């Protein structure tokens, strides 16, 4: 209490309380990522990169076929391989716009057979196999890698791993939405509480000053 020159007591008005730190509810409720979804995401990235390698190899083969004029049909064949491999890459991104029109790509067995088909098209030996061994080596690497990915997809589809993944994805999306809704509710509640507390403090301050 500080005394004034007239002998009266002048009480120092109380200061408003410091804002309460807001702890994100997501930090408390969000658990670790699903290991199955993480593994599937990594495998999808690997498959997409392998399909891109197949695209590059087939483009190089098509360019050589058209430039040399040795085999026009091989060049056309490589162009088809590029188009189908492009669909493999899009399927791995699981773009909703594309998956809506290509429902069959949601099933892992069908996706694996498509990858095996692209691997076989990439592996087909052109007439210049004895001249460009470096290009043939790239074809072998890309085709066998995509073939392995396709076999894994087919086996996983038979074991219903894809169905389990989709179910967990829906569960993850539902949980994330619930966390966001709860986080918004908690922030609104804290804001209203702080507003009410500050208003009460200023009312008490005004009464004391009067």
Structure, explained:
With 210 residues, the protein is mainly alpha-helical. 75% of the residues lie in helices and 2% in strands. It contains seven helices and two strands. It has helices at 25-29, 35-68, 72-93, 96-101, 108-123, 133-158, 161-209; strands spanning 2-3, 9-10. A two-stranded antiparallel ribbon has the order 1-2. Helix 3 (72-93) packs antiparallel against helix 5. The radius of gyration is 32 Å and the shape is elongated. The protein starts with a strand and ends with a helix. The model is unreliable at 1-11 and 17-30 (pLDDT under 50). This is Golgi apparatus membrane protein TVP15. It comes from Melia azedarach.
Sheet having the most strands = 2 strands, antiparallel
**Spans of at least 5 consecutive residues with low confidence:** 1-11, 17-30
What is the helix fraction of residues, given as a range? over 70%
| Broad structural category | mainly alpha
Radius of gyration: 32 Å
Number of helices: 7
Q: Please indicate the percent range of residues in DSSP E strands (runs of 2 or more).
A: under 5%
Average residue pLDDT: 75
Task: Give the strand order of the largest sheet, numbering strands 1, 2, ... along the chain.
Answer: 1-2
* Structure summary, number of beta strands: 2
Shape, principal axes of CA atoms: elongated
How would you spell out the order of helices and strands? Answer: EEHHHHHHH
Cα end-to-end separation: 17 Å
């Amino acid at each position: 209490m500080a005394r004034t020159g007239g002998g009266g007591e002048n009480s120092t008005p109380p200061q408003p309380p410091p804002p309460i730190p807001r702890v994100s509810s997501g930090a408390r409720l969000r658990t670790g990522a699903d290991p199955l979804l993480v593994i599937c995401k990594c495998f999808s990235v690997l498959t997409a990169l392998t399909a891109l390698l197949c695209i590059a190899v087939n483009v190089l083969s098509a360019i050589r076929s058209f430039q040399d004029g040795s085999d026009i049909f091989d060049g056309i064949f490589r162009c088809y391989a590029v188009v189908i491999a492009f669909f493999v890459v899009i399927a791995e991104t699981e773009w909703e716009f594309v998956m809506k029109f290509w429902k069959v790509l949601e099933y892992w067995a069908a996706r694996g057979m498509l990858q095996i088909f692209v691997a076989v098209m990439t592996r087909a030996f052109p007439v210049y196999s004895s001249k460009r061994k470096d290009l043939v080596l790239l074809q072998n690497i890309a085709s066998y890698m995509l073939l392995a990915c396709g076999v894994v997809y087919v086996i996983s589809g038979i074991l219903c791993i894809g169905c389990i993944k989709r179910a967990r994805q829906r569960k993850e999306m539902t949980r994330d939405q619930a966390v966001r809704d709860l986080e918004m509710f908690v922030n609104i509640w804290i804001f209203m509480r702080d507003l009410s507390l500050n208003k009460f403090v200023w009312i008490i301050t005004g009464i004391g000053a009067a």
